[in-house]
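Problem statement: downstream parser choked on a complex file, so we are re-checking the raw output for the adenosine-5'-diphosphate run. The parser issue turned out to be on our end (a line-ending mismatch), but while we're here, posting the original submission so the record is complete.
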Amino acid sequence: MTLKLGCIADDYTGASDLANTLTRAGLRTVQTIGVPSDDLALPQIDAVVVSLKSRSIEASLAVARSREAEKWLRGRGARHVLFKICSTFDSTDKGNIGPVMDALRDDCGEKLVLVTPAFPETGRTVYQGNLFVGSVPLNESPLKDHPLNPMHDSNLVRVLARQSKTRIGLIEFATVTRGVDAVRARVAALAADGFGAAIIDAVFDRDLETIGTVALDHRLSVGASGIGLGLARALVAASGRQNASHADAMAAVGGPAACLAGSCSQATLGQIAKAEAIMPVLHLDPEQAVKGKDEARRALAWAGERLAKGPFLIASSATPDRVAALQARYGRDAAGHAIEEAMADIAEGLVQAGVRRLVVAGGETSGAVVDRLRIPGFLVGDEIAAGVPVLRAVGTKEGAMLLALKSGNFGGPEFFADALRLMR
Ligand code: ADP
């Protein structure tokens, strides 16, 4: 198998978003958790998104991990690699966008890299090199107060120049609107003048397609899911293929199904209430879950009696006042972490008992579950709700397994039923 596209994402949720975007655009895509082992067996696919947690770590570490990911992707035949960053260009003067870009560019011998975080359908546009978040420049958006990387400059040419060892150019909207040949000419001119990267403007979706087409002439690009969409559309157009089927991802696995909820969001609380009407629901005692392992054992005993009879839901979720009370007693992080661990214990026990279809509500909760189950990666399938696809685990010792992992606020009121309907 030769990959058409390799991607390195600097955080996990960004990777999921990109993998979903590529899939919707017609590329069969696997998202891996970290750099995979050399012997990871993959189905027939077009793209791999390697998820790293490198956005806010020390720059030298981010470079080392990204290089390792690039080596793996190139080894699987990826000619083009996208370094996926946040659409709000989250970074500091120390990095990590510039240092990682410089290292990957040196590794692949490319002269100039196209860079754009634009994703017009989510309100991220770039004009004259300035990033807009909705209707305001980046430095007037809530990102100016971000705890880890406050963004005080909306001019990305300047922002990236402070992070990179090379000169940073600009490819203006006027050039982008003139199309692929005009952009190609500008890229060649900037490369000849010694620029190592260029911020490229994009205001409309069609700009992303122009950028994607030109980027594919090269070995590396940097951007958010928007440029991913442009690359995917250019690749699909070049292959002359209709949208890929998700049949491989969606093939039935059978066996017992279970749902876990650790999110305390309004949306998830409503979804749990709806689930009560159609399946048994166990509400964990959150205080007991913080205190020790007995609560998870109790939940697994409860589940064991129901496994053969149909799906069920185990929830730690509670209303804001009860969450606040627990946090006041044990501390916010300690309480959250202990409950995530309890959920991971339960997920592990359920899989040992034969569960092969697992729906998880809550971003951190999902992360804890996936880590515990040591799932190397996922093939992305059909969407249950916007932004929440069915995932088929790849490379697990347990064999075929389907998961749905959702952030608290995602999905409609019947989310659990909607998920189970697709996960056969
Ligand atoms: P979301 O996607 O809604 O943010 P997460 O799973 O990311 O959901 O975060 C929810 C956090 O709340 C987790 O750390 C989880 O362990 C914690 N949590 C779950 N139930 C409770 C509870 N009853 N009291 C306090 N914290 C809880």
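For whoever reads this later: The CA atoms of residues 233 and 239 lie 10 Å apart.
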